[in-house]
Amino acid sequence: MAPEKPVATASGAGEADLATVRATSPGAAPPTDIRPQAFQELAKGERTATALETQLNNMEAKIEALLAQAENDQQEVQRLKDATAGAEQGEVKKEGA
């Protein structure tokens, strides 16, 4: 008699019973239903992933804000350099005239 093959459904494991697969495998340990624990661990993993994603999104927003501020500061420094250079050139022209 061929081992029973698990069948997956859209809602999850469905008929895919790990205990049945283990019971029909040669040298298998006594059947144990590990699905509740597996689903609990899966849910915990999902919660952890969601928390990490939230933290990463917050860090990304902070990094973008820092980069935008750095760019604004750099533009302000350049504007002040240009203004200072223009004022110095005006003074040189007055002295040379």
Note the main attributes of this structure.
mainly alpha; 2 domains; 2 helices
Overview of this structure, please?
The structure is a single chain. Helix content is 71%, strand content 0%. The chain is mainly alpha-helical and 97 residues long. The protein has two domains: 1-29, no CATH class; 34-96. The longest helix has 62 residues, at 35-96. The protein is rod-shaped.
Tell me, what's the shape? rod-shaped
| Unreliable residue stretches | 6-10
- The percentage helix is over 70%
Strand count, sense and closure of the main sheet?
none
Please write the string of helix (H) and strand (E) elements: HH
Mean pLDDT value:
78
* Strand element count: 0
Q: Using only CA atoms, what is the Rg?
A: 34 Å
Q: How is this fold's topology laid out?
A:
Elements: H1 18-24, H2 35-96
Task: Please give a quick description of this structure.
The chain has 97 residues and is mainly alpha-helical.
